[in-house]
Specification:
With 359 residues, the chain is of the alpha/beta class. It has helices spanning 38-46, 64-71, 95-107, 119-151, 164-172, 178-210, 215-221, 229-239, 249-253, 278-288, 299-306, 310-332, 337-356, and strands at residues 6-12, 17-23, 29-34, 52-57, 75-79, 258-263, 266-272. It contains 13 helices and seven strands.
Length: 359
């Protein structure tokens, strides 16, 4: 709720900050172009009629400015860009107009704020996102190698691909042409480097998952089938404060609910919205496939259960049974497997929330 005297909108860029402030008592406007230094911005805010409330759009400049303002005792709301209201007929966009629009929206409490993570949470998030980037790099490098070999008539029939045996086969292939040979060797080096980077990041994630502020939550999430240490840790750091959701809203937050266009008596539903955190959505989609086979508490899952409290184990057991039964239900109704798996992922998100908020 806006209770301050002055509302301030900041249009933050890498090399400049355009600020516009509105004094709600006098209606006076204050405009200033500042350098993107936290202390400079805060010093200018202190010259305004107080108390002051500030907002700026979430973007590539991160949350350092918001943290600095919180330390200085200034309320700062980091606005979700996709939730900002903009006039339909507005065809002029400038930094000053953007900052003025933000100040006006803050004044009428029409700002949807994003959650500002702590420094520790952001560091852990950087780690899991680096792991996600390496996964993508490795996948693309492997595709380049396999397609180059296919064009030249080399197909592997020796069993599982990308195993140690397969890697040995790859390194035995030689090309006579210099260009093809150099391209092939470069792609093989990219695979080896990506694997080394992935293993190094996996070791760091395992270390943090075993001894950090995310350990308890990670171990509870890992009681569910398909949620390994890597997946559980990523869910823990990407979602952050699970208490802001409930069992239904978390699926919508992650873009796992159907899109809809309804008007009057017409109701049309389409594919999932795919809004929110794409990394978490991919992890849940992959984890959902593990609930299709018959549910058996094997040694790997039992070892994870031993690290979690008894209430988490009991609830996860119910969830695992429920998700497998849902898979069987979709199979009997002849649902497409991809559609069924997405529905399972949406319900799995709810079970993750249930374990994360378990007291």
């Amino acid at each position: 709720m806006f209770t301050e005297r002055t509302s301030v909108g900041l249009d933050v860029h890498a090399r400049s900050v355009v600020a516009t402030a509105i004094d709600t008592k006098t209606g006076e406007l204050f405009k200033q172009r500042l350098v993107p230094a936290n202390e400079v911005v805060i010093d200018w805010l202190h010259t305004l009629p107080g108390p002051v409330a500030v907002t700026y759009e979430a973007g590539p400049t991160g949350f350092g400015l918001a943290r600095a303002m919180a330390t200085a005792g200034i309320r700062c709301e980091v606005a979700a860009p996709s939730k900002l209201s903009r006039p339909a007929g507005d065809r002029v966009k400038t930094d000053v107009r953007d900052s003025l629009q933000l100040a006006r929206l803050l004044r009428v409490d029409d700002i949807t704020s994003v959650r500002v993570p702590t420094v520790t949470q952001e560091a852990a998030r950087d780690l899991v996102r680096a792991r996600e980037d390496v996964r993508g790099d490795l996948m693309r490098a492997r595709h380049r190698v396999s397609k180059l070999l296919l064009r030249h008539g080399h197909v592997y029939y020796g069993g599982q691909t990308w195993s140690a045996k397969h890697h040995a086969w790859l390194h035995r292939i030689r090309f006579a042409d210099l260009g093809t040979r150099c391209a092939y060797e470069a792609d093989l080096e990219a695979i080896d480097f990506a694997v080394a980077r992935r293993d190094r990041l996996d070791a760091t994630i395992a270390e943090l998952a075993a001894d950090s502020e995310f350990t308890d939550l990670t171990r509870r999430l890992c009681c569910l089938r398909g949620v390994s240490t890597l997946t559980g840790f990523a869910l823990a750091v990407e979602i952050g404060e699970w208490q802001r959701f409930n069992g239904n809203s978390i699926g919508a937050y992650l873009g796992l609910v159907p899109s809809e266009h309804s008007s009057g008596q017409s109701r049309r539903q389409g594919s999932i919205t795919k809004t929110g955190n794409s990394h978490v959505r991919r992890l849940l989609i992959e984890a959902a496939w593990h609930h299709k086979p018959r549910y058996v508490v094997g040694p790997v899952l039992r070892a994870r259960w031993e690290q979690a409290p008894e209430p988490a184990r009991a609830r996860a057991h119910i969830g695992n049974q429920r998700l497998h039964d849902r898979w069987n239900s979709y199979t009997r109704r002849h649902k497409k497997h991809t559609v069924a798996n997405t529905a399972i992922a949406r319900e799995l998100a709810g079970w993750c929330w249930s374990l994360a908020t378990l007291e």
